[in-house]
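I'd like us to work through together how a protein chain folds, taking it slowly. We need material for that, and I hope you will provide a protein of your own picking. Go ahead whenever you are ready, and we will take it from there:
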Amino acid sequence: MDSPRFLRLTDVAEILNISAAQTYALVRNGDLPAIKVGGRGQWRVERDKLEAYINRAYDETRRFVEAHPWDRSDDEPDAGEADDAPAGAADGISAEDDTD
């Protein structure tokens, strides 16, 4: 069976591994093109539009990384600080990394 042409916002949220509220915000601010269908005005995202959004996000991320090179030495703790740092901090990993 072929994949559906249109996805519900909950489907998009699952694919992108973000919340339904974040998905709605992407649609409402125009970042992710969508249509309203039916009498209740339910939002639907065309699969091709989602793929285009993902490709744009990759392009934007690549440009950001190129413009902001990461130097691990900037993030390394000084001697003795590693024991006081939260888990993952020495690797540049934080719980906040997943909120954007």
